C-alpha cells in the first residue's frame, strides 16, 4: 500500500501519541514534596528520572554525574537511555521519566494535541551533517532532487525538520520530503547503506558525523546548524529540556535544580580540556583526533542560556517549520504554553 505524505508523517510521529496516556489518566507522576513543588533552591535530596537519547545528551548526563553537578543541586538522578526519539517522547508523556531531552517538533505536536508537553530549558542545536561519498556525482545538496537521502531520525525528527528548512532556504529544495526520496534507517546502519550505494547521501547522527569526518571517505553537503545560522542568525535549538504541565505543577524546585545542574554541566564541557578525551573513550572512538573533532562538532552546538530571547527564537523556528511540514501535519501555530521561562530562580 502506498502511503500519502501526510499519513507517513503522522505514523512517524506515533510515539507522540503515547503522551495521551498521561492526559487520559495513564501514567501520572508522583505528587512530590512541598520542597519539590516550591521553585526555591532545593535543600534536601530529591529524585529525578531523566530520559536521554545517544549523542550530545549522553555527554551531558555523563559529565553531570561524573562531576557531581546533580548532587550539588540536591538531585538524585536516575538516567534511562532510549534508542530513538519516539520512545523517549512517549516515556515523557507516560511519566516513565520525569524529564527528557525532547525534540522540538514532537513536543510541539504533543502540546497542540492537548497532551501537556512543556519545554523549560534548551540543550543543543544540531551537530549533524549531510554527507555523500567522495566518488559520488552529487556535488551540492541541490543535486539530491530525485535521489535517495538516508535520515537517521526519520521524517518526524527535529533534525530532519531543520534540514528541510535549510534545504529550502539555501539549496532551493522547497519540499525535501517530497522532492527527495527519504530512506529511514538506524544511525548505525546509515554509512553502510551509503557505502553500498543504497542511498546517495546521508543525514547522520552525532557519533556517525564524527566517524564520517575522521574517515576521509565522505564529502559534506551541508552542516545543518552552520547553514541555518548563516540564514537566520541564531543557532536552532532542536533538543530541549521537556516535561509535562502535571509534573511541573508539583516539581518546580526539581526542574529549577535540574536547570542549574545543566548550566554547570554545559559550562564545564565548554572549558575543561579533558572531557572530550574521556567521552571519546566512553563511546569507543579510538582515533586520536576524535576528542578535538567532538569538541568542534558537539561543544560548539550547546546553547548556554534559556531565556525569553531563546524561547522567541524557538517560536520563530516553529513558524518556519509550519509551511515546510504543513499545518495539517504539524501544528497551525506555536502552541500556547509550550515554552516556560518562569521556572528559573537562583540555584547556586
UniProtKB/TrEMBL annotation:
Superkingdom in the source lineage: Bacteria
Name used for this protein in its record: ABC transporter substrate-binding protein
Signal peptide: 1-22
Keywords assigned: Plasmid, Signal
Pfam families: NMT1
Organism of origin: Pseudonocardia alaniniphila
Family indicated by similarity: Belongs to the bacterial solute-binding protein SsuA/TauA family.
Keyword Membrane recorded: no
Amino acid at each position: 500500500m502506498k502511503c500519502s505524505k501526510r499519513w507517513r508523517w503522522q505514523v512517524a510521529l506515533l510515539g507522540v501519541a503515547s503522551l495521551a496516556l498521561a492526559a487520559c489518566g495513564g501514567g501520572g507522576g508522583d505528587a512530590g514534596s512541598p520542597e519539590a513543588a516550591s521553585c526555591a533552591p532545593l535543600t534536601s535530596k530529591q529524585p529525578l528520572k531523566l530520559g536521554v537519547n545517544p549523542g550530545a545528551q549522553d555527554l551531558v548526563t555523563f559529565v553531570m554525574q561524573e562531576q557531581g553537578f546533580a548532587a550539588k543541586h540536591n538531585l538524585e538522578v536516575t538516567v534511562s537511555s532510549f534508542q530513538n526519539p519516539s520512545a523517549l517522547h512517549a516515556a515523557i508523556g507516560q511519566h516513565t521519566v520525569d524529564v527528557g531531552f525532547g525534540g522540538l517538533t514532537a513536543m510541539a505536536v504533543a502540546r497542540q494535541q492537548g497532551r501537556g508537553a512543556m519545554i523549560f530549558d534548551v540543550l543543543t542545536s544540531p551537530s549533524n551533517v549531510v554527507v555523500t561519498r567522495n566518488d559520488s556525482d552529487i556535488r551540492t545538496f541541490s543535486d539530491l532532487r530525485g535521489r535517495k537521502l538516508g535520515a537517521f531520525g526519520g521524517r518526524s525528527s527535529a533534525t530532519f525538520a531543520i534540514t528541510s528548512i535549510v534545504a529550502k532556504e539555501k539549496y532551493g529544495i522547497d519540499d525535501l520530503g517530497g522532492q527527495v526520496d527519504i530512506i529511514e534507517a538506524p544511525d548505525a546502519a546509515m554509512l553502510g547503506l551509503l557505502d553500498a550505494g543504497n542511498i546517495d547521501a546521508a543525514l547522520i547522527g552525532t557519533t556517525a558525523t564524527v566517524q564520517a569526518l575522521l574517515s576521509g571517505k565522505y564529502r559534506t553537503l551541508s552542516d545543518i546548524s552552520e547553514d541555518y545560522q548563516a540564514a537566520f542568525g541564531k543557532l536552532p535549538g532542536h533538543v530541549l529540556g521537556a516535561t509535562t504541565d502535571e509534573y511541573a505543577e508539583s516539581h518546580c524546585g526539581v526542574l529549577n535544580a535540574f536547570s542549574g545542574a545543566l548550566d554547570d554541566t554545559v559550562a564545564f564541557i565548554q572549558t575543561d580540556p579533558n572531557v572530550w578525551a574521556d567521552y571519546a573513550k566512553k563511546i569507543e572512538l579510538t582515533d586520536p583526533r576524535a576528542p578535538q573533532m567532538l569538541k568542534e562538532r558537539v561543544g560548539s552546538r550547546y546553547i548556554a542560556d534559556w531565556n525569553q530571547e531563546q524561547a522567541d527564537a524557538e517560536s520563530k523556528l516553529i513558524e518556519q517549520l509550519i509551511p515546510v511540514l504543513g499545518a495539517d501535519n504539524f501544528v497551525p501555530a506555536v502552541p500556547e504554553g509550550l515554552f516556560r521561562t518562569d521556572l528559573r530562580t537562583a540555584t547556586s
